């Protein structure tokens, strides 16, 4: 018989401290990604995305170690923390749904944010980088859509172009699995590939382009020695850039010099490091 649990790990010892049973057995079983599970309200609550294929979010009390509630989010997917105790979720019509919860995990407000992108002409990637409570969502065709998630209702901001005219003529596009990562200093790192076409959004990339989110411009290009699938930048004053390559190994680059410093193997043929999470 299948049993679903939420495992709580100790960062220092890498050992399991607690398991919380998820009784309804409806969590989304997909390739791992950050926004399928998120902590909110100073880590007091964990949100878990469900897909049966009906979509909902389970609210878990991390102090009492119990499931409080399931919140239905029909037509919407994934979890983007917003406000004090809530989340927003991307919807199939190009809108967002913003929800705030009380201490018992019940919905106290629910707001539909009008459609702000065209899902047919230029959809958003569901992966984003978050800097100072602004979410940066790349689009399939190479634009950046910021969304302010600091308050209880998501507020889309003006999108900006990731590409110059010549880069757009060469069909440079974002692509891969975890294609974007942000640093607290305002930089975002995006995995890019040339000669993009409809359907190449999962193809990975040959370069990482670094953008200044304040100036809306590219400030550096990091050529990859091996084709990249996912990336993550570490925190701190001297960050490193980790890139999962096509052999499921992790290449570590110095963002300042754009040089490959080392390659890490984390389990051989059994490893699938699609999702990378920088430890703060």
TrEMBL record:
<comment type="similarity">
    <text>Belongs to the aromatic amine dehydrogenase heavy chain family.</text>
</comment>
<dbReference type="InterPro" id="IPR009451">
    <property type="entry name" value="Metamine_DH_Hvc"/>
</dbReference>
<dbReference type="GO" id="GO:0030058">
    <property type="term" value="F:aliphatic amine dehydrogenase activity"/>
</dbReference>
<keyword id="KW-0574">Periplasm</keyword>
<keyword id="KW-0813">Transport</keyword>
<dbReference type="InterPro" id="IPR015943">
    <property type="entry name" value="WD40/YVTN_repeat-like_dom_sf"/>
</dbReference>
<dbReference type="GO" id="GO:0042597">
    <property type="term" value="C:periplasmic space"/>
</dbReference>
<dbReference type="Pfam" id="PF06433">
    <property type="entry name" value="Me-amine-dh_H"/>
</dbReference>
<keyword id="KW-0249">Electron transport</keyword>
<keyword id="KW-1015">Disulfide bond</keyword>
<keyword id="KW-0560">Oxidoreductase</keyword>
<protein>
    <submittedName>
        <fullName>Methylamine dehydrogenase heavy chain</fullName>
        <ecNumber>1.4.9.1</ecNumber>
    </submittedName>
</protein>
<dbReference type="GO" id="GO:0052876">
    <property type="term" value="F:methylamine dehydrogenase (amicyanin) activity"/>
</dbReference>
<keyword id="KW-0732">Signal</keyword>
<dbReference type="InterPro" id="IPR011044">
    <property type="entry name" value="Quino_amine_DH_bsu"/>
</dbReference>
<feature type="disulfide bond">
    <location>
        <begin position="76"/>
        <end position="91"/>
    </location>
</feature>
């Amino acid at each position: 018989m299948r049993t679903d649990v939420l495992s709580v790990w100790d960062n220092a010892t890498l050992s399991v401290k607690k398991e919380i049973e998820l009784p309804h057995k409806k969590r989304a079983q997909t390739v791992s990604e950050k926004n399928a599970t998120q902590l909110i309200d100073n880590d007091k609550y964990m949100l878990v995305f469900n897909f049966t294929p009906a979509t909902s979010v389970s609210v878990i009390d991390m102090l009492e170690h119990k499931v409080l509630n399931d919140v239905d989010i029909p037509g919407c997917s994934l979890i983007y923390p917003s406000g004090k105790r809530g989340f927003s979720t991307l919807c199939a019509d190009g809108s967002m749904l913003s929800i705030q919860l009380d201490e018992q995990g019940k919905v106290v407000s629910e707001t539909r944010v009008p459609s702000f992108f065209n899902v047919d002409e230029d959809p958003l990637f569901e992966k984003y980088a978050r800097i100072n409570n602004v979410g940066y969502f790349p689009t399939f065709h190479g634009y950046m859509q910021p969304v302010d998630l600091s308050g209880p209702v998501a507020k889309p901001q003006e999108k900006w172009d990731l590409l110059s005219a010549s880069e757009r003529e060469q069909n440079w596009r974002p692509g891969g699995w975890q294609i974007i990562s942000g640093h607290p200093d305002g930089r975002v790192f995006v995995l890019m590939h040339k000669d993009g076409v409809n359907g190449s959004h999962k193809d990975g990339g040959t370069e990482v382009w670094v953008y200044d989110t304040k100036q809306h411009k590219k400030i550096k290009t990091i050529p990859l020695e091996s084709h990249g699938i996912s990336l993550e930048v570490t925190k701190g004053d001297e960050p490193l850039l980790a890139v999962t390559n096509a052999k499921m190994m992790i290449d570590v680059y110095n963002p300042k010099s754009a040089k490959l410093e080392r390659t890490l193997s984390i389990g051989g043929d059994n490893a699938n490091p699609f999702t990378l999470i920088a430890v703060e």
